[in-house]
Amino acid sequence: MSEHKEHNHPQEKVGVYVCHCGSNIAGTINCGEVSEWAKDNPHVEVSRDYEFMCASTGQELIEKDIQEKGLTRVVVASCSPHMHEKTFREATERGGLNPFLFEMANIREHGSWATNDKKAATQKAKALVNAAIDRVVHHQPLEKIPVEINPSTMVVGGGIAGITAALDLADAGHHVYLVEREGTIGGHMAQIDKTFPTLDCSACILTPKMVEAGQHDNITLLSYSEVEQVDGYIGNFQVKVRKKARCVVEEDCTSCGICEEKCPVQVIDEGYGAGLGHRKAIYRAFPQAVPGYPVLDKENCIYFQTGKCRACEKFCPTHAIDFDQEDEILNVDVGNIILATGYELFDARKIPQYGYGRLENVFSSLEFERMINASGPTGGHVVLRDGKTEPESVAIIHCVGSRDKNYNEYCSKVCCMYSLKFAHLVHEHIPGAEVYNYYIDMRTPGKGYEEFYNRLLKEGTHFVRGKVASISEADYLPGEEGKLIIQSENTLLGKQQRKPVDMVILSAGMDPQPDAEEIGQLFKAGCGNDGFFSERHPKLAPVATMTDGIFIAGACQGPKDIPESVAQGGAAASAVAKLIGQGTVMMEPIRASVREEECSGCRICNTMCPYNAIEFDEEKEVSRVITALCQGCGTCVAACPSGVIDGAHFTNTQVLSEINGILWDVQTEHEKATA
Amino acid sequence: MTEQFEPVIVGFLCNWCSYRAADLAGTSRIKYAPNMRPIRVMCSGRVDPQFVLSALRNGADGVLIAGCHPGECHYVNGNIKALRRFTLMKDTLEQWGIEDDRVQLLWASASEGAKLAEAVNRMTEEVRALGPLRWSEKVLTGNGAAQPAVKEA
Question: What is chain A's mean pLDDT, rounded?
């Protein structure tokens, strides 16, 4: 086996280390054979196989060989570089070499774990090891790039996750810009009446946090504002924020509420009120709103529509109404950004057979939250859509839009628990009412959650295990007149059944925000298949994204209840605080650079760069990469028609050598075939 | 008994999605054809057509380029650039008589280990059905077609 290609760097001395990973690799790949075989490669000075290369003893092997055998390059064939590249780069560095003179061959995830065919796995491992050896001889020593961290942070989204993150950072002494697109912070938690399983009042625990965020010296609250543009990179983001005109001069407004009182327009409150109840054209979502300044809704304002009225302006004691107010554009510099943009309730209208929006006594879960709230439109009374009749029977349908291939495949996680809460609250508000919970599986993982379920079982709620097929007014049996008929399966009885009830509550799941993808592109945070933001690692980096300096917290990452959202808000804050504490971060030196003397000045690369990191020197007529902006994707490198852009650590020579090396065994057959 | 032809496919996998999809396939112990040999690139947009030509010229029977889904690119839209280059390149490859199935483009996110494994299985069968590439016959001597200009690194 001496079919290795000729190399240009015969002076390099490569050390090859083939890891057994216990039996994870050695169970499928003949590691001894691979390491013996690697010795035939003329660059290889030493080749070993070892049980656990990531163990300190394994790493010491590398360090010792560098020092004693004068290795100039290191190859470790083990797991994915996403697992241990850092580990072995550090070992290489401790041995006295530049850490980038190392290359990894992934023979576990891409090798031993991917096939049971031992022969083929060993052959593939040889190809990967050979590719790494052929590549590593062309590696160049690189230095990581230090980047200073601006200590200010932007938190986007003022729900409970965003508020928590902002407060944690502000309390630690760091400045925070909290951006919220609605007129007030608070998010969905502000709409909720009671929280499961403790049944404490949501507003009572949330509003002090809102006030704290609104008054904190270290928090600049930008409500009724949206981010329009994000430039820069970790440590140095430039964000353009549009502060929408609320037609109220904040400095003059005392939040007295007279404008709201005098406004003659009643509008259905689709936002905070979830469609249940009304608000005025100039309004605060709720009395405890933070900030307390109202927002003027131009679409419904009589003055903006007809040119008459101006009642709010007339009665405002401090003359704080300004109809001519214009949107303001703010440019904010921050070091890190936390996205806490939350979720949207699944729109139950998408399931026509459940009748939401068509059958008047079918309510969405958020509507019901508003209804049972003492400050809500019915004053906390559970009543039918007519506003006065108390229902004698209520059906609560779980998993609406969740765990359903037609809508969302995932479990929305909170619906079982809030459905149980609803059942409890109906019992509490209407003693003697019959409550039916239709569930697929009861999911109550959480502290005190299962206990809450057990409590409900004792309260007399009827639990029906089965998916509801339809909700209709099609009565034909005695006792069904004027009722909503639930047609469902009862899988525990193995029967189809009909149940007439007065009221239906649809426990809708959590959807990603409708503009999550747009927001993701703005901040360069990707969305997964389900539409929620993707975390860097599902287990070990749940609040980081693939983009350095951009973090996520709360339900924008996936369905979550309040404690989880709070935990993530805190986690994101601490991840940012760590970076602020470090002051500088070291960035991967994978960057492009133009060999200016050979550049033809065609400018093709200029438009290729997604980060506008390539500038054109008009005088010299050459393109130049702004290293601080370059993220190292290599698109320009591939696009340069003269091949004069180098992508550090992924140069043409390196990749082409890797291609050559990976085809070590087939190349010769091919040559034979053409000979 | 004649031995089954085992094609060799070079896979260019982007660091953020497809390479991780292959990692996930491994971590999930999904077994798939060992015929694809992965090469990590930071972005599918880094895949210079000369990499594909170099792989084919050096004996690969097929090339798979895999990146993040459109809209999910770690570098905003490198995958779209990969798609454009791919479309252009396929045109040329076709003129040289290189069959359509030999060079494929795949979107596989970091969570789609199973999808990547399936795609590799399928492509392996497709290329196996086509048989060995025989680059020299096709490109160097085929119908007087000129030797493609490959940039020297």
Answer: 94
Task: Name chain A contacts of B112, Cβ cutoff 8 Å.
Answer: 529
Give start and end residues of each alpha helix (H) in A524-560.
none
CATH of the domain spanning A14-143, picked from 3.30.1380, 3.40.50, 3.10.450, 3.90.1070:
3.40.50
DSSP class per residue in A301-344: -HHHHHS---HHHHH-TT--B-TT---EEEEEEESEEEE---EE
Q: Out of 3.30.70, 3.30.2310, 3.40.50, 3.40.1350, select the CATH number for domain B9-143.
A: 3.40.50
pTM over 0.90: no
Give chain A positions within 8 Å (CB) of B40. Answer: 81
Interval A555-584: pLDDT, tens:
999 999 999 999 999 999 999 999 999 999
Cβ–Cβ of A546/B16 closer than 8 Å? yes
Cα within 13 Å of Cα(A320), Cβ side: 22
Same fold for the pair A245-326 and A592-647: yes
* Backbone phi, psi, residue A475, to 5°: -85, 140
Q: Residues near A513 by Cβ (< 8 Å), separated by ≥ 6? A: A341, A342, A343, A344, A519, A556
Q: Quick one: tokens of B57?
A: 């010229």
Q: Do B74 and A534 touch (CB under 8 A)?
A: no
User: Pick from A111, A650, A662: which is nearest to B46 by CB?
Assistant: A650
pLDDT band at A174 (very low <50, low <70, confident <90, very high): very high
CA distance readout (Å), A669 to A197, A505, A656, A659: 69, 69, 19, 16
Q: What is d(CA A150, CA A270) in angstroms, rounded to the nearest whole number?
A: 39
**What is the homologous superfamily of the domain A344-511 according to CATH?**
FAD/NAD(P)-binding domain (3.50.50.60)
Are B75 and A127 inside 8 Å of each other by CB? no
